[in-house]
Amino acid sequence: MSLNRLTKRFGEHRGIEDINLQICPGEVFGFLGPNGAGKSTTIRLAVGLTHPTAGSVRALGMDPVRDGARLRRDVGYLPGELALFARLTGKETLERFCRARGLTDTTYRDQLVERFGAELDRPVRMLSKGNRQKLGLVLAFMHRPRLLVLDEPTSGLDPLLQEEFTRLLAESAAAGATVFLSSHDLDEVQRAVQRLAIIRDGTMVTVDSVEGLRARAPRTVELRFANPQDAYGLDHIPGVSLVQVDPGRVTLKVTGPLGPLLKEAARRDVQDMTATPSDLDELFRTFYADGRDDQGADVH
Ligand SMILES: Nc1ncnc2c1ncn2[C@@H]1O[C@H](COP(=O)(O)OP(=O)(O)OP(=O)(O)O)[C@@H](O)[C@H]1O
Ligand SMILES: [Mg+2]
Q1: pTM above 0.85, yes or no
Q2: Domains of the chain, each with CATH number or no CATH
Q3: What is the pLDDT of residue 299?
């Protein structure tokens, strides 16, 4: 799937601006960003539920604007706000969707119901949020679509089901599906996706692999020296900033490779060193807060 200079305005209001993305078959791609950033807007454009103001989408070789109905038969779409017929039971809902999609072999559907423990006998309006979401997931996956577009798929799911969902994603991608999902849960995204984008105020702040982001995330390094003076003067190294310094002891924040700092420190008499793992949460907070990456470069 590709999004090309995708732009949507709502009258005077900004929706999204100039979004460019390519997602390959077999890839799970995550889309993160604060409330109102434009995730759902992008997702609705991707499946042809709204039309772009400018730019275009290519999904499964089709243009959702022209081929929306045909495209959606081969897409598993989970909306952020699942609208179902309130009076139908889960079972009736599944049957109605199966008929609409011409799905006759229900083996896989029934396996999914089992895996997620979807509640089928009660009317949809009586279901809890999580139980409605389970039904939505079965609806999105049951026809083994080649493209999965999922708006906050795990919202409302308990931790065990979140893990089950992550396994389902991996299986679907291994079978060749293209997966595009939005989320607010960084931990889950780190486990489930290969690459991710962060969107803020309608524009992309960054797109990278999880490993790539981790390499850019800051880590905290504490060094202790025999000579009290040696703790000073290390924060001029590129990627290194000072957190705290006392005679003989310095705490630094390091972004990128540790080599330059270690070389400089090795010229002094280092007694001890501790380094925390790179902190993806902290990198995300900077993206969310001001849309600048950790190098201080504005990537808007
Ligand atoms: N139909 C609409 N009419 C006017 N403005 C809209 C419409 N849909 C979305 N917007 C605006 O577009 C922006 C992006 O909204 P969107 O729902 O895509 O955000 P989101 O990233 O999905 O947020 P959340 O995390 O809260 O789900 C917001 O400023 C929102 O107010
Ligand atoms: Mg949304």
Answers
A1: yes
A2: 2-213 (3.40.50.300), 218-277 (3.30.70.920)
A3: 43
Q: 107-116 vs 90-101: helix axis angle to the nearest 10?
A: 150
Q: Helices in 76-175 by DSSP H: which ranges? A: 90-101, 107-116, 129-141, 159-174
Amino acid identity for residue 263 in this structure: K
User: What does the pLDDT look like over 269-298, one tens digit per residue?
Assistant: 999 999 988 888 888 888 888 654 444 444
Tokens of 71: 């495209």
The ligand that comes nearest to the alpha carbon of residue 50 is 1
How far is ligand 1, taken at its centre, from the CA of residue 41, in Å? 6
- Which one of the ligands is nearest to 34 CA? 1
Cβ of 43: how many Cβ atoms within 10 Å?
A: 23
Average pLDDT over the chain reads: 92
Ligand 1 within 6 A of CB of 33: yes
Chain Cα centroid distance, residue 27: 12
Burial class (CB in 10 A: 0-12, 13-18, 19+), 47: buried
The pLDDT of residue 296: 42
Q: How far is the CA of 283 from the centre of ligand 1 (A)?
A: 24
Q: Is 40 in the pocket of ligand 1 (CB under 6 A)?
A: yes
